[in-house]
Amino acid sequence: MTQERKVLIYGGSGYTGKLIAECLAQRGIPFYFAGRTRARLETALEVVRQRHGGPVDAEIVVASNTVDELEPLFKKVDVVINVAGPFMQVAWPVVEAALASNCHYLDTTGEQDWVIAIADKFGQAFAAKGLLLCPANSYMWAAGALAAEVVLETEGVDSIDLLYQIDNGLPSEASTKSFLRMVCNDVSQYYLEQGEYKAWPNDKAFDVHVPYRAARMRALPWGGACEPVWFKNDPRVRNCKVLTAIGEHLVDPILGAIDAFNKQAAHLPPEGREAWTNAVGDQMATGEPPKDSVDVQRSVIVCGGQGRQVTTQFVMNLSAPYSWTGEIGAEAAERLLKGRLKKVGFQSAAQAFGHRELLSAFHQLGYCSLPH
What we know:
By secondary structure, the protein is α/β, with parallel strands linked by helices. The chain has helices spanning 15-26, 38-52, 67-74, 87-90, 92-100, 112-128, 139-151, 173-183, 227-230, 248-264, 270-284, 321-337, 349-353, 355-364; strands at residues 7-10, 31-35, 58-62, 79-82, 104-107, 132-134, 157-166, 190-193, 196-199, 206-208, 217-219, 239-245, 299-307, 311-317, 345-346.
């Protein structure tokens, strides 16, 4: 592989940015480590070096998230990985600069409304340039898309039902703000029903059963997820629902925050609602968590499929969701640099790179199970 620096992480000093940087270093891929504050980037890169256990071929660059500052940097690279959120609030210039600079764009968002918005505004433009626009290239919601593609291999399946279950979830500070702005949204946490978006209630938990677990759990729509967006215009899929059971200890505090939002902020204009969820996120955040572990932060993704005459299910183990997010970011960048992109424009990772190929790669790395 060329040793030119053709990958840039924007927002690299955060929890997920460091994980992606570590995974790029493990693959021997040079990268720019970008953000708004040099001191934070230097501290973060030192953490990456310690985890990697040796030198890291990275160059720190400082830029605010404006098109004017980002575009000269992006013109040096082929792949931009954006990890600076909440995305609907701050990421628009990053996508615009990537498109103007002819860069593939990846991000790690879990925000359904952001994914819908950039698909509508930028999907065709990226496709016309032969570029990939791949938001949610992360545990949420790429993992479910991989599982869904396995289920859709069964002829006749046209409805997807997904459940994410996570043991000992560790939301980062940025993730806390992102999930609050998602779960508090009372009008646009969507599932797909007969090809059309329908809104989940934002104040209700759902009892779910996870295979291999005796006790029932409670799950939330968690912002609606991005699988309904991936499949919105897919002729194979009529219905798609996603629920998330991230931890019983989190359900009541989240429902409490949603209740307070509905009483105090639901009537506010968009900027007021965003400010409210950011403030609550600051109160809930407890600092950066430690790196997750395949033996502690274990996850199961249950994907059921149904059609006129068929039902099927794939239960996929996928451990250490944050670390896996780092792996899929680096894996996607490596495949783009090697010219292994299968579909351009707005795509899930599963469609962009092939779900079987990705599952095989991550199984070899020790993260996930394979279909039988």
